[in-house]
Amino acid sequence: MQRAIALVDCNNFYVSCERLFQPRLEGKPVVVLSNNDGCVVSRSQEVKDLGIKMALPWYQMKDVAKRHGIIAYSSNYALYADLSNRVMSLLSQFSPQQEVYSIDECFLELTGMESLGKLSDHAQRIRQTIKQGVGIPVCVGIASSKTLAKLANHVAKKQAHYNSVCNFNEMTEVERDVLFANIEVGEVWGVGRRSSVRLHEMGIHSVLDMQRVSPKRIRDEFSVVLERTVAELNGEACLELEDIVPDKQQIICSRSFGSLVSNLPEMEQAVVSYATRAAEKLRSQHSLASGIQVYIRTNPHKEKDPQYQQSILMPLAEPSDDTRHLCHAALQGLRQIYRSGYAYQKAGVMLTDIIPASARPRTLFDDVATQMRSHALMSAMDAINRRMGSGTLKLLAAGVSQNWAMRSGNRSPRYTTEWGEIARCNAI
DNA sequence: TCTGGGGTCCTAGGACCC
DNA sequence: TCTGGGGTCCTAGGACCC
């Protein structure tokens, strides 16, 4: 039986989320910026049409934004995450097997569902359901492997006559060849900028070229990863749907500062804040970490300023999920690598050697009473912060004024997750 | 003034062991 | 004269993704 995998991808997801609550943005050029209002991470079609590239720094496009009346929003992850959950939940009705691949896209297994009629018609019903139920526009690509499904989605998005749905399985080989010959190889999932350049040098320019290249040659010149991509392009499904989300093997929390930091006390506040957040993520997947890595750096874009970056891995005496232990280790690490005389732009922490909490190693000398008190305290903190808002209860070491905190100049209200910011309907 | 954050997988190379 | 070969584990770094 022909394998049928769908990739459902939200259009301009963050921008679509903003428009949902502010319909006046419809038809206008809109962008959403990364943390710190750094660069563009989501663009409306109007902005794409202006030729503005993804990840362009905001300060570099302020002039063009002014000329064209581009409206910029700071990112509002609480809103996007909530709407994403609604989309994914609705999509789960359409297949027994769903892999949520990112905040705005998921794979659905549709193999064998041809009995429902043409799969492209089915995909149109999926689109209508999401549009009606959440209000977010999506495109659907269908094919016999994940890499091809991604490509089909790309076609559905770019070529208007497909009406937002493209099913390679419903096309003849000749039709596909014509299509593939006209798509740049760099559009393929797994072919990044570096590989793209090298492939071009080898004379492989289009998706069709890539499909027909000898897998062995790709393996020798690149890696097994890209060799799999070639197989996937030929309809051989090498990548399975991963419907069970595995625990994270590393948990990172890092952020650029709103303004440069040149003193240890503020760096300490930032590192404690990040370690606190990382510990929350760790507990939410019921895991323990045995190490915490701390990382600091100056601004590499300021070439004239003295540059410094350093990281250090701090092993913990025993695996833990206690914010206090993790922060303590992180601070010790920070003090070892911190050098005065630099203007720091960013710090981060990474939890490593993560194990399930149920696999905590036991010893004869375990202080079970302390472990239980720690667990009770962390559970209470998490419950309060969930209910009253993140950061309601925190370590004093995280600082109160937080002068280094990120900029977020134009964030929309958290319409769906904060009582105080909920959307209002005014009767006239 | 101003350039994101969070992940995964693979590979190469060194240390170490027998 | 002549100094192996294979395996594992760890780490750093690269490439890619959204």
In short:
The protein has helices at 13-21, 45-49, 62-68, 77-91, 119-133, 146-158, 173-181, 193-201, 207-212, 215-221, 224-233, 264-284, 323-337, 368-388; strands at residues 5-10, 30-33, 40-43, 71-74, 98-102, 105-109, 138-143, 165-167, 251-261, 287-298, 309-320, 344-356. The protein has 428 residues and is of the alpha+beta class.
Widest sheet: strand ordering: 5-6-1-7-8
Number of H- or I-type helical stretches: 14
Say how many strands there are: 12
Shape: globular
Overall pLDDT, averaged? 93
Structural class: alpha+beta
Spatial extent as radius of gyration: 24 Å
How big a fraction of the residues is strand?
15-25%
Query: Roughly how many Å apart are the termini?
Result: 58 Å
Largest sheet: 5 strands, mixed
Walkthrough of the structure:
With 428 residues, this protein is of the alpha+beta class. 38% of the residues lie in helices and 20% in strands. The protein has 14 helices and 12 strands. It has a 5-stranded mixed beta sheet with strand order 5-6-1-7-8. Strands 9-12-10-11 form a 4-stranded antiparallel beta sheet, covered by helices on one side. Strand 5 (98-102) and strand 6 (105-109) form a beta hairpin. Helix 4 crosses helix 5, helix 10 packs antiparallel against helix 11 (224-233) and helix 12 runs antiparallel to helix 13. The longest helix has 21 residues, at 264-284. The protein starts with a strand and ends in a 40-residue tail after the last helix. The relative contact order is 0.11. The mean pLDDT is 93. The chain binds a DNA duplex (18 and 18 nucleotides) through helix 8 and strand 9.
